[in-house]
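tokens incoming
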């Protein structure tokens, strides 16, 4: 097989890049190890920054997002029996939209297939070769057969466990990493959200988050130990703990319902530099991971491929190499800003050490400062909704 850009991974990054290239008249083939049904079902992030919403709309895949997405103009912080709303739109003029990653993936798959794009599901990328030549290749297995895709460039959008990053020679990449001593127990519940905006709660027993996926479905999270056994968390224990951590405002209570899904998400920060080697360009979770507290994972992936799409368009359309050459440095400026914000939100809201009252009091002091300082609240808001440029 032959194409212009070979893309490994059919998550939001790989699919959006393929669609952006199509809009510029550039051919691509997307390889995805999982089946279409799995890719369209897997639960991931659910908050889109203003810039991500604008990108999807400009690309012509924002119709259902506009119709079904839940636009939010603020978030609520709960701590020490107090509650404070961060009025993001008032402070920044921008907003966020709650729209599940799986919905973004569905929209992009539909758009690519409607345009005649090639997405090879159930296709395992085995290795990348000749990345330092004019015709790099992706070797893959499909229907039990070994095949090869030759291309001009390879985009590795296949996540942390994919083959793309490992194709870079040893000694080229530098990894920066932090692992947090807790995880998130996440549940999807058939219960109408009792709030119109997300609640972030700092509690003596640990962090909790009240989010949603639709007017009928709630998405909720609890801070737990990183090695927590999900079997030890029956429905009633989950709801009891959520009530304890979230129902700290008099007269307010959450809505309960059947728990449809539950999962455990480890918390870590990771950056791998550079994001390019020869004709391989890495994007999304393949080179950076953030704790979900700041809602930055999917947004960073989309920002990466927005840069890549313009860079490939400049190369194919005008023979320019400057945008390809600057891709890594440009993307990493936003990545590190998002890393700092995600770390800050995580450190401010989670119990890092329940036996350290000094740390607890610092967190409460920080939260009160956000609640009383317009400048500090604006800083949180502009990072949360997404900085236009970094």
């Amino acid at each position: 097989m032959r194409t212009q850009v070979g893309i490994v991974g059919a998550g939001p990054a790989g699919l959006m890049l393929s669609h952006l290239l199509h809009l510029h008249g550039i051919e691509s083939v997307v390889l995805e190890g999982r089946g279409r049904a799995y890719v369209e079902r897997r639960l991931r992030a659910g908050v889109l920054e203003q810039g991500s919403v604008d990108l999807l709309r400009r690309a012509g895949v924002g119709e259902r997002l506009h119709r079904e997405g839940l636009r939010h103009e603020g978030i609520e912080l709960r701590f020490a029996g107090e509650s404070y709303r961060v009025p993001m739109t008032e402070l920044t003029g921008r907003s966020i939209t709650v729209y599940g990653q799986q919905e973004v993936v569905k929209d992009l798959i539909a758009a690519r297939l409607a345009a005649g794009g090639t997405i090879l599901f159930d296709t395992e990328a085995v290795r990348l070769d000749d990345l330092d030549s004019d015709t790099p290749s992706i070797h893959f297995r499909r229907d039990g057969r070994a095949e090869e895709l030759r291309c001009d460039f390879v985009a590795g959008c296949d996540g942390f466990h994919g083959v793309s990053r490992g194709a870079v020679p040893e000694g080229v990449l530098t990894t920066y990493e932090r692992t947090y001593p807790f995880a998130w127990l996440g549940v999807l519940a058939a219960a109408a959200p009792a709030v119109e905006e997300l609640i972030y709660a700092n509690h003596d027993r640990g962090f909790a988050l009240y989010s949603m996926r639709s007017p009928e479905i709630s998405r909720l999270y609890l801070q737990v130990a990183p090695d927590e056994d999900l079997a030890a968390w029956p429905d009633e224990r989950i709801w009891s703990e959520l009530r304890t951590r979230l129902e700290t405002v008099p007269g307010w209570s959450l809505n309960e319902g059947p728990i449809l899904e539950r999962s455990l998400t480890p918390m870590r920060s990771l950056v791998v530099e550079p994001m390019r080697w020869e004709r391989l360009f890495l994007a999304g979770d393949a080179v950076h991971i953030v704790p979900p507290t700041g809602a930055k994972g999917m947004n960073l992936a989309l920002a990466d491929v927005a840069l890549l799409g313009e860079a490939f368009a400049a190369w194919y359309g005008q023979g320019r190499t400057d945008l390809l050459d600057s891709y890594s440095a440009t993307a990493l400026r936003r990545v590190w800003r998002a890393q700092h914000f995600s770390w800050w939100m995580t450190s401010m809201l989670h119990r890092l050490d329940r036996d350290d009252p000094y740390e607890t009091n610092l967190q409460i002091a920080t939260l009160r400062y956000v609640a009383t300082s317009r400048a500090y609240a604006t800083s949180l808001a502009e990072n949360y909704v997404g900085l236009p440029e970094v």
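note: The chain has two domains: 5-71+95-176+268-345, 178-267+351-385.
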